[in-house]
Specification:
alpha+beta
Length: 167
Amino acid sequence: ISYLYMTMEKRIFKFCIFALLSTFIFVGCKEENTYPTTPEIEFVSLTKFDSASQLDSLELVFSFTDGNGDVGTPEIDTLNRDVFVKFFEMKNGVFVEFVNLAAPLEYKIPFLFPRGNNSSLVGEIKINVEYNYFQPNDTIRYELYMRDRARHKSNTITTSTIVTNVQ
């Protein structure tokens, strides 16, 4: 009986070791998400914030992925921009681009870098945009794309439309 007890005890011990090692192997072999080195963006939201002044603003939110994690511009770089936005307003039922050469809609993303072994970056970017207050009661929308530090251009996305109701 003691021989049978020791054999059963060894089997239970071996099973526990096997189960523990299997768990470590499956957890350790978790496949990391991989993304293309060219950034990809997706529209998330466009929210209007009203104020008492003519300078009402919008919060434009989009998500991004970048496979090699080279997103953003160093703070000391005052020339390069990362996000490029086009403004469109509805005129006679058709969206027409409004171009303001004096103040193009270009934005800088803070210098980002991946953590850990995976070089991919995934996140959301929020941009505050002052919309065109020269045309009251406009229906507007935006198109935008971003570039990473290697200057790879992302896809272009279009936001939802919004009525500004500027008086």
